[in-house]
Design goal:
This protein is 17% helix and 27% strand. The protein is of the alpha+beta class and 402 residues long. The strands form 6 sheets. A 6-stranded mixed beta sheet has the order 13-12-14-17-16-15, sandwiched between helices. It has a 5-stranded mixed beta sheet with strand order 7-4-6-5-8, with no helix packed on it. The protein starts with a helix and ends in a 5-residue tail after the last strand.
């Protein structure tokens, strides 16, 4: 068996990055990864505008103005946001302007209306103005040609708003990765089927698919395969072109029905590793077949989720060129509960909040998925260690939180 970090490195380094892009309208592009640097086609603002309601003046004409010594200005006009007025500034003239309105050429500041008498034809100004006061210059927010969104940025509401402000309605984004899931086992029954006496629904596949969809990954198929090497080989060859990564669950260990390692070997798959020094999910395996990565997880539901958490997110980060998608350890103190000595490196369900990490379950069974309802993270427990309240531990949140 190899160590977790070595297995992750083997996975990541085996991935051949093929940058595939597509053009989307900006609303559809929300949450996607930008595929190219986007530059501003014009400055923002592209005209000088007022930062508030008031009077545009030449600042030099306001020198000495005060409540005791107001200066009277001739009002040359009024401009609201969206209006255009062609005129040039003359000494001791003012233009009534509303917030966002164009400031005519020659005026270099705006006196807020509260510092005036609100005059219509003539206006008294009671304060001195400074150059560029309450005045938004051309390109003050964004200069033309500036990179407004860098390649690899995950597009959020701010990005979409800036694109809209530039009149950009479409943007190139990376194509979403495609993942297919094959759950193996004679006992597995589709959700629409009857369990009968000994049937089991494929809970791992649905838990995994939900996390994939939450990160914008396309789940192109979810299939159930019986414990039949020939049927698995047929299904894999049929589906291999529909996904960038195929995730399988089950048939990995040393039981009578654990056919997957031998079946993939006979198909000519390149084995990356089989077996990692960890619990749960020790028999996790990875192969490459027909230029696709096949990540094979434990058949036990909780063990499968631990395998998925530790091995898939680094793969997605590599595929998307975005390290933030990979998991990160966070150091926290144990507030409650304990974990017995780990005979092998172990990942323990827990719940983390402001008080620290809480360990509720004394028994951490690989086959039990319901514990995830009470957990939001897993603890990375070192081999040979015991965890007690007050200890500092490394945790990983489910998904990429933190």
């Amino acid at each position: 068996m190899i160590e977790l970090e070595e297995a992750v490195d083997l996975l990541v380094n085996s991935i051949k990055i093929e940058t595939k892009t597509e053009k989307l309208d900006i609303l559809s592009a929300y949450g996607r990864i930008c595929a190219e640097d986007v530059t501003a086609p014009f400055p923002v603002p592209h005209f000088p505008k007022s930062g508030m309601d008031g009077y545009a003046v030449r600042s030099q004409d306001t020198k000495g103005a005060s409540m005791e010594n107001p200066i009277r200005f001739q009002v040359a006009g009024e401009i609201c946001a969206g209006d255009y007025l062609s005129l040039q500034a003359k000494p001791c003239t003012a233009v009534r302007v509303m917030t966002g309105a164009m400031v005519p050429e020659g005026y270099d500041c705006v006196i807020r209306q509260e510092d005036t008498d609100y005059g219509q034809e003539q206006a008294e100004i009671y304060v001195e103005g400074k150059p560029w006061q309450n005045y938004c210059r051309v390109g003050e927010d964004i200069q033309a040609g500036t990179c407004i969104i860098p390649r690899q940025a995950r597009l959020g509401a701010g990005h979409i708003g800036v694109l809209a402000s530039m009149g950009i309605g479409e943007i190139a984004v990376l194509q979403e990765p495609k993942v297919g899931i094959i759950s193996t086992g004679n006992e597995l029954v589709p959700l629409t089927g009857s369990l009968g006496e000994v049937g089991v629904y494929p809970s791992s596949a649905y838990a995994i698919a939900s996390q994939l969809k939450a990160q914008g990954v396309q789940v192109t198929f979810m299939e159930i395969c019986p414990d039949d090497p020939q049927e698995f080989s047929r299904m894999l060859d049929e589906k291999i072109g529909q996904a960038d990564v195929i995730i399988t669950t089950g048939a990995l260990s040393v039981g009578k029905k654990d056919f997957l390692p031998e079946a993939l070997e006979k198909m000519g798959a390149e084995r990356l590793f089989h077996g990692v020094n960890m619990r749960p999910g020790t028999p996790v395996m990875a192969n490459r077949y027909k230029e696709r990565l096949i990540l094979s997880l434990s058949g036990y539901p909780f063990a499968a989720m631990v395998n998925f958490q530790l091995f898939f997110w680094p793969v997605l980060a590599r595929l998307m060129g975005d390290d933030s998608l990979s998991w990160k350890k966070i150091r926290r103190v144990v507030a409650e509960g304990n974990a017995n000595e780990a005979k092998r490196r172990r990942f323990v369900q827990a719940f983390s909040d402001e008080a620290g990490v809480h360990i509720f379950d004394r028994d951490h069974h690989s086959s039990v998925l319901s514990g995830m309802l009470r957990s939001n993270c897993i603890i990375d427990q070192k081999q040979g260690s015991v965890i007690l309240p007050g200890d500092m531990v490394d945790i990983l949140y489910w998904g990429q939180k933190g």
